[in-house]
Amino acid sequence: MKKPLVGALLALFLTGAAAAPAVAAGGHPAAKAADFAGTVALSNCSGSVVRVPDSQPGDPALVLSNGHCLETGFPAPGQVITDQPSTRSFSLLNAAGSSVATLKASKVAYSTMTDTDITLYQLTSTYAQIQSKYKIAALTLDAAHPAQGAAISVVSGYWKKIYSCNTDGFVYRLKEGDWTWKDSLRYTSACDTIGGTSGSPVVDTATGKVVAVNNTGNEDGERCTENNPCEVDEQGNVTVHQGINYAEETYGIVPCVGAGSKIDLSRTGCALPKP
Length: 275
Prior knowledge:
Layout: H1 8-15, E1 39-41, E2 46-51, E3 60-65, E4 80-85, E5 89-93, E6 99-112, E7 118-126, H2 127-134, E8 139-140, E9 151-156, E10 161-176, E11 179-187, E12 201-204, E13 210-217, E14 230-232, E15 238-239, E16 245-249
Parallel strand pairs: 2-8
Antiparallel strand pairs: 1-2, 1-5, 2-3, 3-7, 4-6, 5-6, 6-7, 9-10, 9-12, 10-11, 10-14, 11-16, 12-13, 13-16, 14-15
């Protein structure tokens, strides 16, 4: 996992990571889809206010981050957490990356590190209230599988930094320590994410929709250890890509969100792990 805090401040100092928003090829500003509006900073990670295509203005808003960013610690392999009370706060950013509000959670709606690495918080505010008060719309989760070669932006609210690269490929199984994730998204090398970028939305710059959530990278070239995930193919062959980073796809969340932002794991098409 991209360690939420350990080493992140040092990495910022050494690399000057507090960069301005990314610039697209040819020197043109990055697409509007790749600004900071709707992203959030957690105490130790990044995240974003997200909606599904059928979300209604009066629904409680959801914040998406990683399972390993959960305030109570990493969910164990096989563990799924639902409807757990939470009072966590989130710093809401505008397009320029300035904090405009503090949003509050009412509960952890869903969290796991099994098959995927996600936490969904339900907020005390609705989408309409956030739009009305702060003029910021939620990011929409794409209901379709991400595309090979697509231009993407990893938008970190924690560091207020945007990484731009492409989808390099998809991984049958990504194994890190005791955890295994399915059909992970591999970045091209330009997305050299660091600690604190965990939970950042991965935005398809052509559509402006969220296709994945940033979660890990192989730091030291080790094989399948914590902070050194390995790729495992359908035949069981293991490959290590030192310095390459990954995200977990989010299209599978969409069928699981029902009316009123309720996470309903019994809905048709919902394949998220169940408790």
